[in-house]
Amino acid sequence: MKDNVFLLGAVDWNRRLFDSLIPLPDGTSYNSYMVCGSEKTALLDSVDPCMADVLLSQITDVAKIDYIVSHHAEQDHSGSIPMLLEKYPDAKVVCTTKARGMLMDLLHIPEESFHTVEDGATLSLGAKTLEFIYTPWVHWPETMVTYLREDRILFSCDFFGSHIATSDMFVVDKGRVHEAGKRYFAEIMMPFRDVIGKNLEKLKKYDIDMIAPSHGQIYDDPAWIMDAWRDWVFAPPKNLVVLPYVSMHESTARMVDHLTTKLVDNGVRVELYDLTVTDIGKLAMSLVDGATIVVGTPTVLAGPHPLAAYAAFLANALRPRAKYLSIIGSYGWGGKTVETLSAMIPNLKVEVIDPVLCKGLPTKEVFAAIDVMADTIAEKHREQGFS
After folding, report:
1. Containing domain of residue 48, as a range?
2. Are 146 and 260 found together in one domain?
3. Neighbours of 18 (CB within 10 A)
4. CB neighbours of residue 190 within 10 Å
5. What gap in Å lies between CA 347 and CA 193, rounded to an integer?
6. For the chain, is the Cβ count within 10 Å smaller at the N or the C terminus?
7. pTM to 2 decimals?
């Protein structure tokens, strides 16, 4: 990367699910970095334990590592530290004070192996100076990043990350990486948007020539990805309705189609997600921008369809900045779909627009009610100035 600064780690071309939850359509990487000073050597982050052998094979000729920097205690970054300590028993694990306890609990690293650092602390390697910056809730409470002063490199761990498996060290396709970065932000970082905003502001005082995340490619032109994160964190919602839905016997599907057409006629963009086939990462990306969420669901055993309930649970967990919410759907004899879904979204600070439910196939009266919903959404978007 630079003189005496090296990218190590492993590319996981075949992994398609992260945390048994998050789709990985393009695989991922676990980036580890080595910084060699004139006196000391530091390894920044490790790799997921499933690929520890790849990392260890890269350092067979490295006689000594003095420091192992753990930016984040989660296993995909720190899980191989115990194996590294077997090879380098005198190495010290450098981390935040909060991370020490977490690493002891999660990985059973002995207390005497740690060297904890406070926010803003520095560590000289000889001709290379590491500065540690606390970045809590990006995306766990113990996280930090490291700034290499002489080379102006920010080792950002999950900050500015993207799940992409590639042979390229540096970003070569900004469009692809922008989409992957937005997916990463949506799936992992969005619930912590407010705190992340403070951490973005904290980084303004640093001259950053390069960002080296722990997932994805290295940014040798970092301004554009930092601007993208500022947009995802600070910009208001857009003139967009996010419409996840499921339909069993076409009733809900007809309502969804009618609402979509009416919204588009009113100048409102719509992104539809058929929950029987959709990629939840794509849905999460839309939630970054959407001003309104409308859930479409039939009634199953007196409540919402389980896939619709999952979409509501996901939205509640991700805490998007949407301002409005509603429900459309159908039922056979009755139920408590609206009440059940409403109870599942306590984290969303939204105004609820009157739901539209129908018994069986929608009638002209139902379509008229959907027209009112679309007009209401469009008017509210205009009043807020969403574009």
Report:
1. 5-234
2. no
3. 19
4. 21
5. 14
6. C
7. 0.94
